[in-house]
Amino acid sequence: MMKRIKRKVVVIGGGPAGLAAAISAKKAGCDDVLLIERARILGGILNQCIHDGFGLHRFKEALSGPEYAQRFIDEFRSLDIDVMTETIVLTMDRRRVLQVSSKAGLLEIQAGAVVLAMGCRERTAGAISLPGTRPAGVYTAGFAQNVMNLENMMVGKRAVVLGSGDIGLIMARRLTLEGAKVLAVFEILPYSSGLPRNIQQCLNDYDIPLFLSTTVIKIHGEHRIDGVTVAQVDDRMQPIQGTERYLDCDTLLLSVGLIPENELSQEAGVRLNPLTNGAFVDDTLMTSVPGVFACGNVLHVHDLVDHVSAEADSAGKNAADYVQKGKNDPKIRIPVTPGEGIRYTLPQTISGKRDVTLSFRVEEPARNRRVMVCDGDRVVKRKKVIRLHPAEMVQIPLKKDILKDVRSLKVYVE
Questions:
Q1: CB–CB of 222/202 below 8 Å?
Q2: Rounded distance between C-alpha atoms, residue 294 and residue 344, angstroms
Q3: What confidence score (pLDDT) does residue 104 get?
Q4: Closest to 66 measured CA to CA, from 48, 39, 83, 53
Q5: 0.90 cut: is pTM over it?
Q6: Do residues 224 and 142 make contact, with C-beta atoms less than 8 angstroms apart?
Q7: Secondary element (H or E) of residue 131
Q8: Measured between alpha carbons, how far is 399 from 404 in angstroms, rounded to an integer?
Q9: What value, to the nearest 5°, has the Cα angle with vertex 228 and ends 223 and 231?
Q10: Pair type for strands 158-162 and 181-186
Q11: Could you give the domains of the chain?
Q12: Eight-state DSSP code of residue 104
Protein backbone atom coordinates (compact mmCIF):
# COMPACT_ATOMS: atom_id res chain seq x y z
CA MET A 1 0.00 0.00 0.00
CA MET A 2 1.33 3.43 -0.98
CA LYS A 3 2.31 5.62 1.96
CA ARG A 4 0.56 9.03 2.05
CA ILE A 5 1.88 12.16 3.75
CA LYS A 6 1.16 15.90 3.83
CA ARG A 7 3.76 18.66 3.44
CA LYS A 8 3.29 22.41 3.40
CA VAL A 9 5.78 23.42 0.67
CA VAL A 10 7.32 20.96 -1.78
CA VAL A 11 10.10 22.14 -4.09
CA ILE A 12 10.78 19.96 -7.14
CA GLY A 13 14.40 20.23 -8.26
CA GLY A 14 17.65 20.60 -6.33
CA GLY A 15 19.55 22.88 -8.69
CA PRO A 16 20.16 26.61 -8.18
CA ALA A 17 16.44 27.49 -8.45
CA GLY A 18 15.22 24.74 -6.14
CA LEU A 19 17.86 25.42 -3.49
CA ALA A 20 17.14 29.15 -3.42
CA ALA A 21 13.35 28.58 -3.36
CA ALA A 22 13.56 26.09 -0.48
CA ILE A 23 15.83 28.39 1.54
CA SER A 24 13.54 31.36 0.91
CA ALA A 25 10.42 29.41 1.93
CA LYS A 26 12.07 28.34 5.17
CA LYS A 27 13.28 31.87 5.93
CA ALA A 28 9.77 33.17 5.26
CA GLY A 29 8.61 31.20 8.29
CA CYS A 30 7.39 27.95 6.77
CA ASP A 31 8.57 25.20 9.11
CA ASP A 32 7.68 22.36 6.74
CA VAL A 33 9.63 22.50 3.48
CA LEU A 34 10.61 19.43 1.45
CA LEU A 35 12.98 19.50 -1.54
CA ILE A 36 12.90 16.61 -4.02
CA GLU A 37 15.88 15.96 -6.31
CA ARG A 38 16.26 13.09 -8.77
CA ALA A 39 20.08 13.08 -8.67
CA ARG A 40 22.29 11.73 -5.92
CA ILE A 41 23.66 15.14 -4.96
CA LEU A 42 22.32 18.69 -4.89
CA GLY A 43 23.50 21.47 -7.17
CA GLY A 44 22.02 20.48 -10.50
CA ILE A 45 23.75 21.60 -13.69
CA LEU A 46 26.16 23.78 -11.70
CA ASN A 47 28.15 20.72 -10.65
CA GLN A 48 29.53 20.30 -14.17
CA CYS A 49 30.13 24.03 -14.80
CA ILE A 50 33.72 24.26 -13.58
CA HIS A 51 34.39 27.61 -15.32
CA ASP A 52 34.02 30.84 -13.34
CA GLY A 53 31.75 33.84 -13.85
CA PHE A 54 28.94 32.80 -11.50
CA GLY A 55 27.90 34.99 -8.58
CA LEU A 56 29.02 38.38 -9.87
CA HIS A 57 25.61 39.88 -9.05
CA ARG A 58 24.69 37.79 -6.02
CA PHE A 59 28.02 37.60 -4.21
CA LYS A 60 30.04 40.31 -6.00
CA GLU A 61 32.76 37.81 -6.89
CA ALA A 62 33.47 35.33 -9.68
CA LEU A 63 32.77 31.75 -8.61
CA SER A 64 32.80 28.44 -10.42
CA GLY A 65 29.49 26.57 -10.75
CA PRO A 66 30.27 24.12 -7.91
CA GLU A 67 31.42 27.00 -5.68
CA TYR A 68 28.21 28.92 -6.34
CA ALA A 69 26.08 25.85 -5.66
CA GLN A 70 27.97 25.07 -2.45
CA ARG A 71 27.09 28.48 -1.00
CA PHE A 72 23.42 27.52 -1.25
CA ILE A 73 23.92 23.89 -0.21
CA ASP A 74 25.67 25.03 2.98
CA GLU A 75 22.86 27.44 3.82
CA PHE A 76 20.25 24.83 2.92
CA ARG A 77 21.80 22.35 5.34
CA SER A 78 22.23 24.95 8.08
CA LEU A 79 18.47 25.55 7.99
CA ASP A 80 17.79 21.81 8.42
CA ILE A 81 15.45 21.63 5.42
CA ASP A 82 14.16 18.17 4.54
CA VAL A 83 15.45 16.70 1.30
CA MET A 84 14.81 13.54 -0.70
CA THR A 85 17.55 12.79 -3.24
CA GLU A 86 17.48 10.01 -5.85
CA THR A 87 13.74 10.59 -5.93
CA ILE A 88 11.60 11.13 -9.02
CA VAL A 89 8.22 12.87 -9.11
CA LEU A 90 6.13 10.60 -11.32
CA THR A 91 2.86 12.53 -11.41
CA MET A 92 1.30 15.75 -10.15
CA ASP A 93 -2.33 16.85 -10.40
CA ARG A 94 -4.22 20.14 -9.99
CA ARG A 95 -4.84 19.39 -6.30
CA ARG A 96 -1.05 19.36 -5.76
CA VAL A 97 -0.97 15.62 -5.11
CA LEU A 98 2.42 14.20 -6.07
CA GLN A 99 3.30 10.56 -6.58
CA VAL A 100 7.02 10.00 -6.16
CA SER A 101 9.40 7.09 -6.51
CA SER A 102 12.09 7.13 -3.84
CA LYS A 103 14.69 4.78 -2.44
CA ALA A 104 12.11 3.79 0.17
CA GLY A 105 9.45 3.00 -2.43
CA LEU A 106 6.37 4.76 -3.79
CA LEU A 107 5.00 7.73 -1.87
CA GLU A 108 2.03 10.06 -2.28
CA ILE A 109 2.47 13.63 -1.06
CA GLN A 110 -0.30 16.18 -0.59
CA ALA A 111 1.39 19.58 -0.85
CA GLY A 112 0.02 22.85 0.41
CA ALA A 113 2.11 24.61 -2.26
CA VAL A 114 4.50 23.39 -4.92
CA VAL A 115 7.48 25.22 -6.41
CA LEU A 116 8.46 23.94 -9.86
CA ALA A 117 12.23 24.20 -10.30
CA MET A 118 13.03 21.34 -12.67
CA GLY A 119 15.31 23.31 -14.99
CA CYS A 120 15.62 22.58 -18.69
CA ARG A 121 17.08 20.10 -21.18
CA GLU A 122 19.02 20.49 -24.40
CA ARG A 123 17.71 20.21 -27.93
CA THR A 124 19.16 17.19 -29.69
CA ALA A 125 20.01 16.38 -33.31
CA GLY A 126 16.56 14.84 -33.65
CA ALA A 127 14.88 17.92 -32.22
CA ILE A 128 16.30 20.08 -35.00
CA SER A 129 15.96 17.37 -37.70
CA LEU A 130 19.67 17.42 -38.50
CA PRO A 131 20.20 15.51 -41.79
CA GLY A 132 22.64 12.67 -42.30
CA THR A 133 23.61 9.49 -40.52
CA ARG A 134 23.54 8.91 -36.76
CA PRO A 135 27.10 7.86 -35.90
CA ALA A 136 28.89 8.11 -32.56
CA GLY A 137 30.58 11.41 -31.78
CA VAL A 138 27.51 13.66 -31.96
CA TYR A 139 26.82 15.17 -28.54
CA THR A 140 24.85 17.97 -27.01
CA ALA A 141 27.28 20.49 -25.53
CA GLY A 142 25.97 19.95 -22.01
CA PHE A 143 26.40 16.19 -22.23
CA ALA A 144 29.97 16.63 -23.45
CA GLN A 145 30.55 19.01 -20.54
CA ASN A 146 29.25 16.38 -18.12
CA VAL A 147 31.43 13.63 -19.61
CA MET A 148 34.59 15.75 -19.57
CA ASN A 149 34.19 17.58 -16.26
CA LEU A 150 32.54 14.91 -14.11
CA GLU A 151 33.61 11.64 -15.76
CA ASN A 152 37.11 12.76 -16.85
CA MET A 153 36.71 11.41 -20.39
CA MET A 154 37.64 13.15 -23.65
CA VAL A 155 34.95 13.27 -26.33
CA GLY A 156 37.10 13.84 -29.43
CA LYS A 157 40.14 15.37 -31.10
CA ARG A 158 38.74 17.41 -34.03
CA ALA A 159 35.47 19.13 -33.23
CA VAL A 160 32.85 21.30 -34.85
CA VAL A 161 30.29 23.18 -32.76
CA LEU A 162 26.82 23.88 -34.17
CA GLY A 163 25.07 26.74 -32.41
CA SER A 164 26.61 29.62 -30.50
CA GLY A 165 24.75 29.17 -27.23
CA ASP A 166 26.82 29.79 -24.12
CA ILE A 167 27.40 26.11 -23.30
CA GLY A 168 28.69 25.52 -26.82
CA LEU A 169 31.06 28.49 -26.60
CA ILE A 170 32.36 27.38 -23.20
CA MET A 171 32.87 23.84 -24.48
CA ALA A 172 34.78 25.11 -27.53
CA ARG A 173 37.25 26.63 -25.09
CA ARG A 174 37.23 23.55 -22.84
CA LEU A 175 38.06 21.22 -25.74
CA THR A 176 40.87 23.52 -26.84
CA LEU A 177 42.36 23.60 -23.35
CA GLU A 178 42.32 19.78 -23.29
CA GLY A 179 44.27 19.58 -26.55
CA ALA A 180 41.51 19.11 -29.12
CA LYS A 181 41.28 21.16 -32.30
CA VAL A 182 38.01 23.10 -32.58
CA LEU A 183 37.64 23.86 -36.28
CA ALA A 184 34.82 26.38 -36.00
CA VAL A 185 31.51 27.34 -34.44
CA PHE A 186 28.58 27.66 -36.85
CA GLU A 187 25.44 29.66 -36.08
CA ILE A 188 22.33 29.58 -38.27
CA LEU A 189 21.22 33.02 -37.07
CA PRO A 190 22.82 36.24 -38.37
CA TYR A 191 24.03 36.98 -34.82
CA SER A 192 25.47 34.96 -31.95
CA SER A 193 23.05 33.47 -29.44
CA GLY A 194 25.65 33.54 -26.65
CA LEU A 195 26.76 36.27 -24.27
CA PRO A 196 29.33 38.73 -25.71
CA ARG A 197 31.82 37.97 -22.95
CA ASN A 198 31.78 34.28 -23.97
CA ILE A 199 32.37 35.18 -27.61
CA GLN A 200 35.49 37.06 -26.54
CA GLN A 201 36.78 34.76 -23.81
CA CYS A 202 35.93 31.40 -25.40
CA LEU A 203 36.38 32.03 -29.14
CA ASN A 204 38.36 35.17 -29.91
CA ASP A 205 40.95 34.54 -27.20
CA TYR A 206 41.63 31.08 -28.69
CA ASP A 207 41.37 31.99 -32.39
CA ILE A 208 38.30 29.82 -32.90
CA PRO A 209 36.30 31.18 -35.86
CA LEU A 210 32.56 31.88 -35.65
CA PHE A 211 30.54 31.70 -38.87
CA LEU A 212 27.10 33.31 -38.77
CA SER A 213 24.16 32.48 -41.05
CA THR A 214 25.74 29.04 -41.52
CA THR A 215 24.59 25.58 -40.46
CA VAL A 216 25.39 21.89 -40.75
CA ILE A 217 23.42 20.37 -43.62
CA LYS A 218 24.76 16.82 -43.41
CA ILE A 219 26.53 14.49 -40.98
CA HIS A 220 28.94 11.96 -42.51
CA GLY A 221 30.11 8.69 -41.00
CA GLU A 222 28.94 5.17 -40.29
CA HIS A 223 30.19 4.02 -36.89
CA ARG A 224 31.90 7.28 -35.89
CA ILE A 225 31.35 10.72 -37.37
CA ASP A 226 34.11 11.49 -39.89
CA GLY A 227 32.93 14.87 -41.16
CA VAL A 228 30.15 17.39 -41.69
CA THR A 229 28.98 19.47 -44.62
CA VAL A 230 28.08 23.09 -43.81
CA ALA A 231 26.45 25.78 -45.91
CA GLN A 232 25.39 29.39 -45.61
CA VAL A 233 21.67 30.07 -45.24
CA ASP A 234 19.39 32.78 -46.57
CA ASP A 235 16.96 34.94 -44.61
CA ARG A 236 14.48 32.01 -44.57
CA MET A 237 17.13 29.75 -42.95
CA GLN A 238 17.42 27.69 -46.17
CA PRO A 239 20.85 26.51 -47.42
CA ILE A 240 22.29 28.58 -50.27
CA GLN A 241 23.36 26.39 -53.15
CA GLY A 242 27.04 26.67 -53.99
CA THR A 243 28.16 27.62 -50.47
CA GLU A 244 28.63 24.04 -49.23
CA ARG A 245 31.92 22.93 -47.79
CA TYR A 246 33.13 19.79 -46.05
CA LEU A 247 35.00 19.64 -42.74
CA ASP A 248 36.89 16.59 -41.53
CA CYS A 249 36.02 16.04 -37.84
CA ASP A 250 35.40 13.27 -35.32
CA THR A 251 33.10 15.24 -33.00
CA LEU A 252 30.04 17.46 -33.40
CA LEU A 253 28.73 19.41 -30.42
CA LEU A 254 25.20 20.82 -30.53
CA SER A 255 24.40 24.04 -28.72
CA VAL A 256 21.06 24.72 -30.35
CA GLY A 257 18.78 25.75 -27.53
CA LEU A 258 17.20 24.64 -24.26
CA ILE A 259 13.69 23.41 -23.47
CA PRO A 260 12.11 23.89 -20.01
CA GLU A 261 11.26 20.53 -18.38
CA ASN A 262 7.51 21.06 -18.12
CA GLU A 263 6.04 17.57 -18.56
CA LEU A 264 4.90 17.55 -14.90
CA SER A 265 3.47 21.04 -15.31
CA GLN A 266 1.41 19.99 -18.31
CA GLU A 267 0.12 16.94 -16.47
CA ALA A 268 -1.12 19.19 -13.67
CA GLY A 269 -2.91 21.45 -16.16
CA VAL A 270 -0.50 24.38 -15.88
CA ARG A 271 -0.98 26.78 -18.79
CA LEU A 272 2.24 27.12 -20.82
CA ASN A 273 3.49 30.02 -22.90
CA PRO A 274 4.52 28.86 -26.41
CA LEU A 275 7.08 31.68 -26.58
CA THR A 276 9.03 30.50 -23.52
CA ASN A 277 7.83 26.88 -23.20
CA GLY A 278 7.38 27.77 -19.53
CA ALA A 279 4.33 28.58 -17.46
CA PHE A 280 2.22 31.71 -17.54
CA VAL A 281 2.70 33.32 -14.12
CA ASP A 282 1.49 36.32 -12.16
CA ASP A 283 3.64 38.69 -10.12
CA THR A 284 3.93 36.13 -7.30
CA LEU A 285 5.24 33.60 -9.85
CA MET A 286 2.12 31.50 -9.32
CA THR A 287 0.99 29.56 -12.37
CA SER A 288 -2.57 29.09 -13.63
CA VAL A 289 -2.94 26.27 -11.07
CA PRO A 290 -3.51 27.76 -7.59
CA GLY A 291 -0.69 27.01 -5.18
CA VAL A 292 1.77 25.95 -7.90
CA PHE A 293 4.68 28.34 -8.47
CA ALA A 294 7.50 28.24 -11.03
CA CYS A 295 10.99 29.71 -11.18
CA GLY A 296 14.34 29.36 -12.91
CA ASN A 297 14.90 27.68 -16.25
CA VAL A 298 11.67 25.69 -16.03
CA LEU A 299 9.89 29.04 -16.27
CA HIS A 300 12.09 30.68 -18.91
CA VAL A 301 15.69 30.09 -19.93
CA HIS A 302 18.00 32.50 -18.09
CA ASP A 303 21.35 33.90 -19.13
CA LEU A 304 22.70 34.28 -15.57
CA VAL A 305 22.30 31.94 -12.59
CA ASP A 306 22.22 35.03 -10.34
CA HIS A 307 18.87 35.93 -11.93
CA VAL A 308 17.67 32.36 -11.38
CA SER A 309 18.41 32.63 -7.66
CA ALA A 310 16.70 36.02 -7.31
CA GLU A 311 13.59 34.73 -9.08
CA ALA A 312 13.58 31.59 -6.91
CA ASP A 313 13.84 33.72 -3.77
CA SER A 314 10.50 35.29 -4.71
CA ALA A 315 8.87 31.98 -5.66
CA GLY A 316 9.86 30.34 -2.38
CA LYS A 317 8.69 33.26 -0.24
CA ASN A 318 5.38 33.50 -2.10
CA ALA A 319 4.80 29.74 -1.79
CA ALA A 320 5.36 30.02 1.97
CA ASP A 321 2.98 32.97 2.16
CA TYR A 322 0.38 30.98 0.23
CA VAL A 323 0.27 28.17 2.80
CA GLN A 324 0.66 30.41 5.84
CA LYS A 325 -1.52 33.41 5.00
CA GLY A 326 -4.09 31.76 2.78
CA LYS A 327 -4.90 32.21 -0.86
CA ASN A 328 -4.20 35.62 -2.34
CA ASP A 329 -6.01 35.62 -5.66
CA PRO A 330 -6.50 39.26 -6.76
CA LYS A 331 -9.71 40.03 -8.59
CA ILE A 332 -7.88 42.44 -10.90
CA ARG A 333 -5.25 40.93 -13.19
CA ILE A 334 -3.37 43.45 -15.30
CA PRO A 335 -2.01 41.85 -18.49
CA VAL A 336 1.62 42.43 -19.49
CA THR A 337 2.30 41.81 -23.18
CA PRO A 338 5.29 42.10 -25.55
CA GLY A 339 5.19 44.86 -28.15
CA GLU A 340 7.45 45.89 -31.01
CA GLY A 341 10.92 44.35 -30.74
CA ILE A 342 10.16 42.25 -27.62
CA ARG A 343 10.05 38.44 -27.83
CA TYR A 344 8.32 37.77 -24.50
CA THR A 345 7.59 39.37 -21.15
CA LEU A 346 7.35 37.85 -17.69
CA PRO A 347 5.26 37.85 -15.55
CA GLN A 348 2.29 37.82 -17.89
CA THR A 349 -0.11 39.36 -15.36
CA ILE A 350 0.37 41.62 -12.34
CA SER A 351 -1.90 42.75 -9.54
CA GLY A 352 -0.66 46.33 -9.34
CA LYS A 353 -0.61 45.90 -5.56
CA ARG A 354 3.09 45.07 -5.18
CA ASP A 355 6.49 46.01 -6.58
CA VAL A 356 7.39 43.86 -9.56
CA THR A 357 10.35 43.29 -11.86
CA LEU A 358 9.53 42.73 -15.51
CA SER A 359 11.87 40.33 -17.32
CA PHE A 360 12.02 40.14 -21.10
CA ARG A 361 14.16 39.43 -24.14
CA VAL A 362 14.41 41.40 -27.37
CA GLU A 363 13.91 39.89 -30.81
CA GLU A 364 17.14 41.14 -32.40
CA PRO A 365 20.34 42.98 -31.51
CA ALA A 366 20.16 46.77 -31.23
CA ARG A 367 22.17 49.66 -29.80
CA ASN A 368 21.27 52.95 -28.12
CA ARG A 369 17.57 52.26 -27.83
CA ARG A 370 14.87 52.96 -25.27
CA VAL A 371 12.72 50.30 -23.72
CA MET A 372 9.24 51.62 -22.99
CA VAL A 373 6.62 50.25 -20.58
CA CYS A 374 3.27 51.79 -21.46
CA ASP A 375 -0.36 51.73 -20.36
CA GLY A 376 -2.02 52.64 -23.63
CA ASP A 377 -0.53 56.01 -24.62
CA ARG A 378 0.82 56.70 -21.12
CA VAL A 379 4.48 55.92 -20.49
CA VAL A 380 4.78 54.13 -17.14
CA LYS A 381 8.56 53.58 -17.29
CA ARG A 382 11.32 54.11 -19.81
CA LYS A 383 14.88 52.83 -19.75
CA LYS A 384 17.72 53.78 -22.06
CA VAL A 385 19.84 50.78 -22.99
CA ILE A 386 23.17 51.08 -24.77
CA ARG A 387 23.15 47.50 -26.03
CA LEU A 388 20.31 45.00 -26.47
CA HIS A 389 20.82 41.38 -27.48
CA PRO A 390 18.48 38.34 -27.56
CA ALA A 391 21.02 36.37 -25.49
CA GLU A 392 20.73 38.80 -22.58
CA MET A 393 17.65 39.06 -20.39
CA VAL A 394 16.59 42.63 -19.59
CA GLN A 395 14.89 43.52 -16.33
CA ILE A 396 12.93 46.64 -15.39
CA PRO A 397 11.75 47.10 -11.77
CA LEU A 398 8.38 48.80 -11.27
CA LYS A 399 7.25 50.27 -7.95
CA LYS A 400 3.62 49.67 -7.01
CA ASP A 401 3.06 53.43 -6.74
CA ILE A 402 3.41 53.91 -10.50
CA LEU A 403 1.05 51.00 -11.21
CA LYS A 404 -1.96 52.74 -9.68
CA ASP A 405 -4.93 52.73 -12.09
CA VAL A 406 -2.96 50.83 -14.75
CA ARG A 407 -5.22 48.70 -16.96
CA SER A 408 -2.64 46.94 -19.10
CA LEU A 409 1.09 47.10 -19.79
CA LYS A 410 2.93 46.70 -23.06
CA VAL A 411 6.71 46.58 -23.35
CA TYR A 412 8.40 47.63 -26.58
CA VAL A 413 11.67 48.91 -28.01
CA GLU A 414 11.75 52.42 -29.40
A1: no
A2: 17
A3: 85
A4: 48
A5: yes
A6: no
A7: none
A8: 10
A9: 160
A10: parallel
A11: 1-122+257-329 (3.50.50.60), 124-256 (3.50.50.60), 332-414 (2.60.40)
A12: T
